[in-house]
Design goal:
Elements: E1 8-13, E2 22-27, E3 31-32, E4 38-39, H1 47-91
Antiparallel strand pairs: 1-2, 3-4
């Protein structure tokens, strides 16, 4: 699934004021129904169709979860490295 096909994505915001990023999931693609409701799936006529849409949403959310873990893990590792260097500098 390409990035353009995904309905949801993760926004990672890194700030110089905080050692950890802030993240949120946002909708990239929605469909406005005739009654004004916004949907993240097309209208499904069968159980198989809606089950496929649900599975695709699960895959997207799993991908987003991995990306969030990477964002926090990478930042936490760099914060730990800085803390170790700071502690060493204080001892010196």
């Amino acid at each position: 699934m390409s990035t353009d096909d995904r309905r949801m994505a993760l926004n990672v915001h890194k700030s110089s004021r905080s050692p950890l990023p802030t993240v949120h999931i946002f909708l990239q693609r929605v469909v406005r129904q005739a009654n004004g409701m916004l949907s993240v799936t097309p209208i499904c006529s069968t159980l198989a169709e809606i089950e496929q849409e649900i599975e695709e949403l699960r895959i997207e959310l799993d991908t987003i979860q991995r990306q969030a873990r990477q964002a926090y893990t990478a930042k936490a590792a760099s914060v730990k490295d800085v803390s170790i260097k700071d502690a060493a500098a204080i001892r010196a």
